[in-house]
Amino acid sequence: MKRFILGFCVAALMCSFAVDGYAQKKKKRIAGVRVDKVIMEPLTQTMPVLGRFVARESGVVAALTRGPVQSVLVAVGDRVKKGDVIAHLVATRIKAARALQAALVSERKAQGRTAKAQLSLTQTELKRLASLRESVAFSRARHDDKISEVAKFDSEVGEKKAAVASARAQLRLADIDLYNAKIRAPYNGVVSQKHTSPGAFLNVGDPVVTLINDNFLEIEADVPSDRLSGLSIGRVTSAKLENGQALKVTVRAIVPEENGLTRTRPVRFTPKFSASAEESVAANQSVTVLLPVGVRRDVVSVHKDAVIPRGGESIVFVAKEGKAVRQALQLGDAVGNRFEVLDGLKAGDVVVVRGNERLRPGQSIKYKGMKPVKVLETEVPEKAGS
Question: What CATH architecture applies to the domain 50-57+214-273?
């Protein structure tokens, strides 16, 4: 009997220890979770519009003087800087013409000096005759003839001055032709086409190469007229490249010319490139512009991973004083990887985004911070026929 009682006491004591251990373990059971803050940021609804990159500086580089092509120094794909020589024209005739004009300037100057000397001599003779006015040797007829000669030589001096100016202008034109015998790049860019080769004869205006400044690109999109109300010069919105990369763009100009068939107007956007994006884009490359629709408004948003659909409603677990507090909420539009919160949460609340599926209301939690994700623009479907 004593042995039985002793065994019963030992068993009861062990059971008590086990229950206490389980209670202690249960008491210390704390869920490890990750959290994110509920934030308030501006929301802009957008609609996708297809656009393309266009170069603000592009076109044909033409010959500015005439002559045969001596050499072309670039090939398709070469990058040039403003002022770099693209091609040489044969300049032998241009140099000879320039030398001829230089000689003509010297000749006109000499003729001008001769005319001035003749004028000076005639003016001296006129003064001598005038000094004899009170003398019996004075001849009025001869005096009048000398006045006419002075006027004649004075006119010749004026003509020679004009001839010198004309010759100098012709020499300047020869200098310009000699300078333009070297065809230069008018801006930085890449050669996209080559239109001539050595031996060809170029007249003024004939194409040499086509040049595109790929460092000065902007976006052109044909925007439906009924969507222009959301745009204004200087407004910032977003765009997406074909590889999914996002970039900010600013409205630079709304062209006041409407396409009667599509009811659209061209809008130019200035992109703000990152280093990687700038290297990957090209003229005529497609880009999707997220066109603002309506006015910006501030919204409270919650990370989508915090929302749990349960019992026909959406709930989240709010972290308060180390406890998981169940909270029902009403959601609005999707905002990137977040949801707009219409009711149930306020900016600054901390919600569980990892480990929330297994939580129970009131359960103790410990967590690490998680950087909030910025609110992105929402997209609305484009109207049929827009």
Answer: Beta Barrel (2.40)
- What pLDDT, in 10s, does the model give residues 147-160? 888 888 888 888 88
Residue 37 contacts residue 302 (beta carbons within 8 Å): no
Tell whether domain 58-87+182-212 is in CATH 2.40.50.100: yes
Dump pLDDT digits (tens) for 208-255.
Answer: 999 999 888 999 999 998 888 778 899 888 899 988 888 999 999 999
Q: Are 219 and 271 in contact (CB under 8 A)?
A: yes
Q: What is the pLDDT of residue 6?
A: 52
